[in-house]
Amino acid sequence: MIYLKVLNILTSRLNYNGIGMSLLNYYNNINNKDIQLDYLVPNVVEDKLKKQFTTKKNNIFEFDYHGKKLHQRRPLLFCLKLYKLLKKEHYDIVHVHGSSSLMFLQLLTAKIAGVKVRIAHSRNTETDHKLINKLFRPLFNISYNVAFSCGKEAGEWLFGKNKKFILVPNGKNSKMFSYNEESRKKYRKKYNLDNKIVLGHIGNFNYQKNHEFLIKVFNQLYKKNNNYFLILAGSGELEDKIKSMAIEMNIESNILFLGQIPVEQVAELLNAMDIMLFPSRFEGFPNVLIEWQMNGLPCVISDKITKDVKVTDLVYFESIDSCKKWVDKVENIKLIDRSIYKKTIINEIKTSGYDIEENAKMLEHEYIKLYNNAK
Questions:
Q1: DSSP-assigned beta bridge partners for residue 171
Q2: How many CA atoms lie within 13 A of 261 on its CB side?
Q3: What per-residue confidence (pLDDT) applies to 151?
Q4: Which residues pair with 230 in a beta bridge?
Q5: Contact 312/354 with Cβ under 8 angstroms?
Q6: Cβ–Cβ under 8 Å, residues 298 and 305
Q7: At 149, which helix (H) or strand (E)?
Q8: DSSP 172
Q9: What is the dihedral of CA 322, 327, 329, 334, to 10 degrees?
């Protein structure tokens, strides 16, 4: 019999992105039959992804609360629906994933519904709604009683430097992301990449991920050496704009836009890459950087990103104020034989605390401890 019911609530869409994949990793690795993990997500979820989140007789609820503008989200109607759900299902823990004080809507509703353990989980180091974030800070502060964060900087951003929070690492499956020579041959043949220096990026096409800068860097590299090739996986509102930039620069023939692809395909595709680029304007703790390091890939990343992601010597921080610095860095990276070093790299990452099996045990322990303390 289930004795501990947890409702995870997302404040952004559930898809094959960082937060979605982090939740899926924990879902697949928490095997305590006494814990039921349910999910409340905005809008409609792709059938394939929904099936991945419902393999253990749990529930995934879809509410329409993610309009592009705040007034489109109908907060009062959402809170009423959430309240009814919490009363019906009798959850012991509500675990909200977001990046601003706007999480107070879910957390305060849970408090009114009588949920004793209310977790605010910081997933980023900025928000699109800075003024509103400040406005609702007092309500947020009284709505949660447990603080989680994906990283140190994300926790300090949301909760403050003087407040305690529990670090919940975005662990990864080392077997899935470890370098595989056969997959490299398969994908390099599939996409005609022999003798190419393949650069890669995986992320949604939005302001945060800074694809405009990425395309400018690639353009300079390509002009110096037309053996460079760029693979972009992801989708989003700026995808068409980035494609247009590539056409204007006359570099579209050396760029492959793959769209949104499942995590299993991402894991295989990484083997075909040589260097990864990540020029984000801001991040919480980007999951993909652990995956890329697990695969043995050098990563040139924005200096706006938390230094905690550097768990191997494969990560290089550069300013997003200068394309030239990125070009110079990429040109000077010496590629290693990943088949030789893969065991060493995986051991480094596990030692740093990013093994999902160990992370899942830790989260199980926290849930049970919080539940018992709240009785």
A1: none
A2: 15
A3: 87
A4: 199, 255
A5: no
A6: no
A7: strand 146-149
A8: B
A9: 170
CA angle 159, 164, 169 (to 5 degrees): 85
Beta bridge partners of 119: 95, 146
Phi, psi dihedrals of residue 277, rounded to the nearest 5°: -120, 140
Q: Which residues lie closer than 8 Å to 242 by C-beta, 6 or more apart?
A: 205, 211, 212, 215, 232
Residue ranges covered by each domain of the chain: 4-171+355-374, 174-351
Q: How many residues does the chain have?
A: 375
Mean pLDDT, the chain, whole residue set: 92
Pick 174-351's CATH classification: 3.40.50.720, 3.40.50.2000, 3.30.390.10, 3.20.20.140: 3.40.50.2000
Enter the pTM of the model. 0.78
Q: Report in angstroms the alpha-carbon separations of 236 from 15, 64, 257, 260, 286.
A: 11, 19, 12, 9, 17
Contact 172, 290 (CB under 8 A): yes
Instruction: Give every CB contact of residue 187 below 8 A, 6+ residues apart in sequence.
Output: 193, 268, 269, 271, 272
State the pLDDT at residue 2.
67
According to the model, what pLDDT value does residue 1 have? 59
Angle of the 18-29 helix axis to the 287-294 helix axis, nearest 10: 70
Fold of 4-171+355-374: Rossmann fold (3.40.50)
Maximum alpha-carbon separation in the chain? 65
Domains 4-171+355-374 and 174-351 share a fold: yes
Identify the pLDDT of residue 127. 81
Spatial CB neighbours of 232, under 8 Å, sequence gap ≥ 6: 200, 201, 202, 211, 242, 255, 256, 257, 258
pLDDT tens per residue across span 169-210: 888 888 899 999 999 999 999 999 999 999 999 999 999 999
pLDDT at 73: 65
Positions of the chain with pLDDT lower than 50, given as ranges: 70-71
In this prediction, residue 285 carries a pLDDT of 79
**pLDDT score for 74:** 81
DSSP structural state of residue 307: G
d(CA 32, CA 27): 10
Candidates 240, 282, 241, 288; CA nearest to 263 is 288
